[in-house]
Automatic annotation (TrEMBL):
Domain of life: Bacteria
UniProt signal peptide: none
SUPFAM superfamilies noted in UniProt: Nucleotide-diphospho-sugar transferases
Location of the Glycosyltransferase 2-like domain: 31-197
Pfam families: Glycos_transf_2
Keyword field: Transferase
Region of interest: Disordered: 1-21
MF terms (GO), sorted A to Z: hexosyltransferase activity
Protein name in UniProt: Glycosyl transferase
Keyword Glycoprotein appears in the UniProt entry: no
Record's compositionally biased regions (Basic and acidic residues): 10-20
Length: 346
């Protein structure tokens, strides 16, 4: 068995024929990718949504990250039914961001586009066909998104309805300046496969929630497509990454700090960059103070403070003290039934 750069042995299971043998002349070939770790609860719904696509020229790679539930058994059921589906079993468990990068290395060399759908999410039947249509219409587009249903709410709105094409630089600027994002999660996007193959690591592995940074990286050289229709579903539940590790570790605000430092100078002028970075850093200090007041954990405080060291930033004691006093007063006001606007950790 061959070994890849993630240090795991490639062990594959597939249906009767290799997905790379599919004729790609009539429709661009799409690699659909689902990383799975103990995702059995929602996995059938996810897989069925891929099988129900009105687009036919795809392979479906299920990357099993050493699941201990019934995920692998479910995958094998579907492999037996459709030879476009194959399983890649990791030999060892990989951390989340490392596993996502490892999963990208399993896509077919023939695929023109890659569509990720996480195991607790699913796709509407026209997802692949509509996203591929936009990508084919605009060759400079490297990422395609759409409206997204998150449980029972629709988001990722805000772009002009009249066009499916958006300047990549303008989309990046809107995110860095105002926090307006049409990226959603990896399940929301179709990406040109060549842009993935060009990079040894598509996602930054040093922190969670680095998918937005990956999008900004692609928008340095490509444009952004958008389908004005609801094409993806993302599930928010107690066990989802966005409700657990990302929230607990302040991953979203950390990722915004990384993005401002890594891409602010490329997409913004100096004045814009300073203003945007100051806004995000101010939010970080509010959350740092709130965490200390509410959790009363010095260990957690030190762990969050280490994020600044990783970014090469000095801890501003006076700035933190002001936010700490602010949080203490807010806690006192809440005691008397008064409530102030809450700062989110996203």
């Amino acid at each position: 068995m061959a070994q890849d750069s993630a240090g795991t042995v490639k062990e594959s299971e597939r249906g009767k024929h290799s997905a790379t043998d599919i004729d790609v002349d009539t429709q661009p070939f799409v690699s659909v990718l689902t990383p799975v770790y103990n995702g059995g609860k929602f996995l059938r719904e996810c897989i069925e949504s891929v099988l129900n696509q009105n687009y036919e020229n795809w392979e479906y790679v299920l990357v099993n990250n050493r699941s201990t539930d019934d995920s692998l058994a479910i995958m094998r059921e579907y492999v037996a039914q459709d030879d476009r589906i194959r399983i890649h079993n990791n030999e060892e468990f990989l951390p989340q961001m490392e596993n996502l990068n490892h999963a990208f290395r399993q896509i077919s060399p023939k695929s023109k586009y890659c569509k990720v759908v996480h195991a607790d999410d699913w796709l509407f039947p026209e997802c692949l066909s509509q996203m591929v249509k936009v990508a084919e219409e605009y060759p400079s587009v490297g990422i395609v998104s759409s409206y997204r249903l998150v449980n029972n709410k629709v988001d990722l709105d805000g772009l002009p309805y009249s066009s499916n094409f958006n300047s990549g630089k303008e989309i990046a600027r809107k995110y860095l300046l105002y926090g307006h994002s049409q990226f959603g999660s990896p399940s929301s996007l179709l990406i040109k496969s060549d842009l993935i193959r060009e990079r040894e690591k598509f996602y930054e592995e040093s922190h969670l929630a680095s998918d937005t940074g990956a999008c900004l990286e692609l928008l340095k050289e490509s444009d952004f497509g958008f389908v004005h229709d609801i094409l993806t579903f993302s599930r928010r539940h107690d066990e989802s990454m966005s409700n657990t590790k990302c929230q607990e570790s302040f991953a979203f605000i950390h990722a915004k700090l990384f993005s401002q430092l890594d891409y602010g100078s490329f997409f913004l002028n100096e004045k814009e960059q300073q203003k945007s970075f100051s806004r995000i850093l101010n939010k970080y200090y509010i959350l740092l103070a709130r965490n200390l007041v509410q959790q009363r954990s010095l260990e957690e405080f030190k762990r969050q403070k280490e994020v600044l060291e990783k970014l090469g930033l000095n801890f501003e004691g006076m700035r933190f003290l002001k936010k700490l006093i602010r949080e203490l007063f807010q806690q006192l006001f809440r005691y008397f039934g008064l409530e102030f606007k809450k700062v989110s950790n996203k």
